[in-house]
Amino acid sequence: SGTTVSTKFGDVDVPEDPQRVVALGWGDAETALALGVQPVGAALAVSGALFQSLTDNPLGSPDIIGFTSGSYTGAILALTVLGAGLDGAAVGALVGGLATAAVVLALTYRRGIEGFRLVIVGIGVTAMLTAVNQWLLLRAQAEVAMSASIWGAGSLAGSTREAMLLAAAGVVLLLVLVAMASAALRQLELGDDIARSHGVRAGGARLAVVVLGVALVALAVATSGPIAFVALTAPQIAARLLRSPGLPLAGSALTGAFLLLGADLVAQYAVPGGVPVGTVTIVLGGAYLVVLLIREARKKSW
Questions:
Q1: Is residue 100 part of a domain?
Q2: Per residue in 123-175, pLDDT tens?
Q3: Number of domains composing the chain
Q4: Is 1 domain-assigned?
Q5: What is the 3-state secondary structure (H, E, C) of 206-271?
Q6: Does this model's pTM top 0.70?
Q7: Per the UniProt record, which residue ranges are transmembrane (predicted)?
């Protein structure tokens, strides 16, 4: 059995396969709200905190430096080229995120990772990947292109209970690993020399942080599509609320969880007809990004 969906490509007969349903944005919205919003928000926020700490730059967020776009590219390739479902898209998102991280870091590395260079290179990579994603969707079959486009808007209302539980379990596991690596991260924030003097292998620790950060954002993308700006804003908001000199990982996780929950409530109930949660985060995050850029420009002018 299936459902006929009208698109600009014509009427499309969509099979009601559970994995396709997730990608198409159908399912139990209440389940998504209860099980999906907070783990995804926490994953995005902690990923943002990891990369902002690693680069010592508030713009060093995975959605700015290309890792989110790379994860989405990997997921689109899995859906369009391999014909995969949710599981394949999740693997594709992880591979795409890691591959993008490798490219960005290779282009950026000059005797260490310099935050400003990473942001500039990442913005360029993001622009290129966005063009690649659009090209892939234009060449895909109508059904797949429609599902990937809806999913790409950042939607939390379509996942099944099983998929949400699996994603939540994955986020919890990754957050435990992040907690185990947090001591090394704090040493890296003080500089490689100090980190080495305390017995931390700077190169290995930095690689572990990158892998964990990419895995978190890839899992979030695989679950809900690329939701922008939560990773950028949540760590900074948490640091200001807690008056922390650094970026608090636990505080970032909680802030991201409730920030995305609030955005999803706005998307579902405050906007007539409802919109994808990614639309709300883009509006709010875009305003925050403008303020942040102005603040950074003023700092450099002094």
A1: yes
A2: 999 999 999 988 988 887 877 777 777 777 777 655 667 777 888 899 999 99
A3: 1
A4: no
A5: HHHHHHHHHHHHHHHHHHHCCCCCHHHHHHHHHHHHHCCCCCCHHHHHHHHHHHHHHHHHHHHHHC
A6: yes
A7: 32-52, 64-84, 90-109, 116-136, 165-185, 205-234, 273-294
